[in-house]
Amino acid sequence: MRQFVWKATGTFFLATILSAPAWGVTPARPGRLNYVEGQVRIGTQSLDAKSIGSTELQPGETLVTGSGKAEVLLTPGVFLRIGDNSSVKMISPSLTNTEVLLEKGRATAEVADIHKENNIRIDQSGGAIKLLKTGFYAFDADRNQVRVFNGKALVLAGDQRIEVKGGREINLATGTPLHAQKFNKKMYADELYQWSRLRSSYLAEANVDAARIYVSGGWYGPGWYWDPGFGAYTFLPGDGIFYSPFGWGFYSPLWAYRAPVVFTGRYYHRFDRDDYRAWGPAFHSRRDVVGGSFRGPRLGLRYPVAPVISRPHASVGFRGGFPGGSVRR
After folding, report:
1. DSSP secondary structure letters along 91-119
2. Hey, what long-range contacts does 159-162 have (CB within 8 A, 24 or more apart)?
3. How far apart are CA 30 and CA 205, in angstroms?
């Protein structure tokens, strides 16, 4: 009976995230192109703004950048971002077995949501990296390096395996024992990191916009949803608020009204893209409340906020939403 219930729940979960409507574009699956700038191609096909939302990286295909960048969706809540002069090959786009190979250059992965049923792997020539927790990860195929800014990853190289936690990096050079060591996050907040952070803020803003659209109809649960105003897919959780590694919130449609609103000087805006103080006294998980103040996620900033007690709530076919003023990170 337990096995039957687990299979039924898992089937419902996968069916739900695949059925997310997209208003004129097909439902997003792992491998869908969500943003492109500069010189980017798949095979001989050059990609531009018209490719966003319609182009999908198929198994065996390679996305190559010159002087340009690209953002590719993996499982719902996971964004793969490819830097300049890089190439990424799609190995498997399955929701339960998602695997890409970073052949050269650099990439990052922002993980706002992940489930135990997911198996998300970023391969490099020296080994494979399985993403285990929400967080932000950086990959450098040219130097065979992996950095875990936040989260946790399992690194596999031959018969070696090691878990790498936030604030640590590892070198996958052939013939050397795997060893994770600390690194200075501020020193490695480079241009690709900054671009990833900016993309995260845009998508969080698109989330609020899309959540207000879909709350009145067409929302079937957690997954990728197309926002026509931003011209991109964004992530809508099944319940509550999920935070990106940079501190931006992804709101479920029923929680979009809690998104912070700031005045930028000309008009009211949901987020201030350049100033995390715009978050103010929003609702956050209690682990971010220290002595009656809010510590901005990952950034060490502190602002007044009332403590919130988190109580887990199980939604049908979905794991991880939190009602009643609480969130998931």
Report:
1. EEE-SSSEEEEEEESEEEEEES---TT--
2. 160/127
3. 22
Q: Are 118 and 14 in contact (CB under 8 A)?
A: no
0.85 cut: is pTM over it? no
Contact 77, 123 (CB under 8 A): no
How far apart, in whole angstroms, are the C-alpha atoms of residue 315 and residue 274? 34
Q: Cα(57)–Cα(156) distance, rounded to whole angstroms?
A: 25
What 3-state DSSP class applies to 15? helix
Residuewise pLDDT in 10s, the chain (329 residues): 333 333 333 433 443 444 344 444 567 899 999 999 999 999 999 999 999 999 999 999 999 999 999 999 999 999 999 999 999 999 999 999 999 999 999 999 999 999 999 999 999 998 999 999 999 999 999 999 999 999 999 999 988 999 999 999 999 986 778 899 999 988 888 999 999 999 998 998 888 888 777 766 666 778 898 988 889 999 888 777 787 888 888 877 777 666 665 434 433 444 444 433 333 333 322 222 222 222 223 322 222 222 222 222 222 222 233 333 334 44
- Cβ burial of 85 (10 Å; 0-12, 13-18, 19+) is middle
Q: Hey, what domains does the chain have and what are their CATH numbers?
A: 1-27+200-329 (no CATH), 31-189 (2.60.120.1440)
